[in-house]
Amino acid sequence: MRKLIIASAAIFAVAGLAACGESAADKSAEQQADALEAQAAATPNEAEEKALNEKADMIEQQAGNADGGMTTANTPNTSPSSEAAPAH
Questions:
Q1: Tally of domains within the chain
Q2: Which of 2, 16, 56, 69 sees the fewest Cβ atoms within 10 Å?
Q3: φ/ψ (deg, to 5) at 86
Q4: What pTM was estimated for this model as a whole?
């Protein structure tokens, strides 16, 4: 019984460390995406603005999926079909 308790505590500790690591990666990706979005807003070229915004969305989406989908609440939906879908 004591071994089971120790093993359970170790699993929770490792899970906590993994969550901290993802948080740092998510923050870094968010900073990169923000920089790209600022660059997109500053450009007068619409095609370049769209490309930069798409790249920023991709970075945010990849960061949100880095943990295997555990934090999908922070993952932006960049699917083209989601924009055309009717609201229910």
A1: 1
A2: 2
A3: -70, 145
A4: 0.51
